[in-house]
Write a structure and sequence with these properties.
This protein is mainly β. It contains two helices and 13 strands, in the order E-H-E-E-E-E-E-H-E-E-E-E-E-E-E.
C-alpha cells in the first residue's frame, strides 16, 4: 500500500476538482450499494462512471488522460467517481474488492478530491480523505469506504493492470 500526498500538480488537481465539484458534472444516484453481490440500501451515494469494460463512458474522460498516464497502466479496467453526502454517523461499506473476479493481479487507486472526515479502511488502517491524496494498493486487498459526517466526500476510484 502506498499513500502519496500532493499526487498531482496543483493546477491540474484544481482543474479536476473544479470539474467534479461543478454544477455541470452529472452525478447518478443509486439506491443501493452493491458490494460482494449484496445490495445494501443507501441514500447517500452517487457515482459517475468514467470508464468501464474497455470503453470511456463520459465526456470528461479526456480530462483524466494525464492522470491515467501517470499510473503507468497497461490496461484500464474501470474508473469511477464516487460522491458520498454526509450521514448522521459514519456508515462503512462491506469490505470488498472492486473487481472480485479478476483473473490476473490488478491495482486499485483512490484519488481523494475533497477533504472530509470520511475515510477508507484497509486491513486495520484508516486512511483519511485529504485533497490530492492518492492511495494505491493491490486490487485483491479488501477495503471499505466510510461515509463522512461533515462535508461531501468526492473521490476517483481507479482499477488497472500494470
Amino acid at each position: 500500500m502506498k499513500i502519496i500526498d500532493n499526487f498531482l500538480d496543483k493546477e491540474y488537481f484544481t482543474e479536476i476538482k473544479n470539474t467534479l465539484c461543478g454544477e455541470q458534472f452529472a452525478w447518478y444516484h443509486t439506491p443501493t450499494l452493491l458490494v460482494l453481490k449484496k445490495k445494501i440500501p443507501v441514500n447517500y451515494y452517487f457515482f459517475h462512471m468514467l470508464y468501464d469494460s474497455s470503453v470511456p463512458h463520459s465526456s470528461h474522460y479526456s480530462l483524466f488522460i494525464p492522470l491515467i498516464k501517470k499510473l503507468n497502466a497497461i490496461s484500464l479496467t474501470r474508473i469511477r467517481m464516487n460522491l458520498y453526502i454526509p450521514t448522521a454517523k459514519p456508515v462503512p461499506s462491506e469490505f470488498h474488492q472492486d473487481v472480485p473476479n479478476a483473473k490476473t493481479k490488478y491495482k486499485t487507486g483512490i484519488l481523494y478530491i475533497t477533504k472530509n472526515n470520511g475515510y477508507t479502511i484497509i486491513e486495520d488502517k484508516k486512511i483519511e480523505c485529504k485533497e490530492n491524496r492518492f492511495l494505491e494498493f493491490d486490487g485483491n486487498t479488501l477495503h471499505s469506504a466510510v461515509s463522512p459526517t461533515d462535508e461531501r466526500k468526492i473521490l476517483c476510484n481507479f482499477n488497472w493492470y500494470e
